Amino acid sequence: MTDRANVTISLRSDIDGEVEQNTFSGEWFRKGSSVFVRYEETSEGEGDSVVRTIIRYRDGELSVTRRGDVESLQTFVAGTKRTGHYESAHAAFHLETETKLLWVQFGDLTKTGPSDGQLKPDLPMLLEWHYTLLVNDEPTGEFQLRLQAEEL
Predict the structure, then answer these.
(1) 53-97 residue pLDDT tens
(2) Are 114 and 139 in contact (CB under 8 A)?
(3) Rounded to an integer, what distance in angstroms lies between the CA atom of residue 30 and that of residue 14?
(4) Which residues contact 143 (CB under 8 A, 6 or more apart)?
(5) How many angstroms separate the CA atoms of 4 and 30, rounded?
(6) Exposure string for 72-87, b = 16+ CB within 10 A, e = fewer
(7) Whole-number Å distance between alpha carbons of 68 and 41
């Protein structure tokens, strides 16, 4: 079991019924009781943009931080509302996420073997979260995201 690995990240997003599938190369690592996934999103075209994304999971809380041409922070805890922010060259606003589902699975559950009694997060990692995005207390969309990280 490793504490750091290069990974392929599959990200499926369903936003109000519109589904998009993306694949990224990135890094997965453990630090203390937190698990992180880090990757870069690039969009080509006029003024190529790069956004670095860090996803952190710890004890039932998920945070997604984006830095670059977009700056944002979103936090997710099942059954709660959390505040965050979004900023780009075109807009800046405070937002809230109302999380309906936050679920994570670590490791290959088909493998069995001796255990030292300590369960540690391992690859592959499957993370799913569903939420309503609110801006100025108004719902602006229903989001369902599913991220899978597998070692290269």
Answers:
(1) 999 999 999 999 999 999 999 999 999 999 999 999 999 999 999
(2) no
(3) 28
(4) 13, 14, 15, 130, 131, 132, 133
(5) 7
(6) bbbbbbeeeebebebe
(7) 10
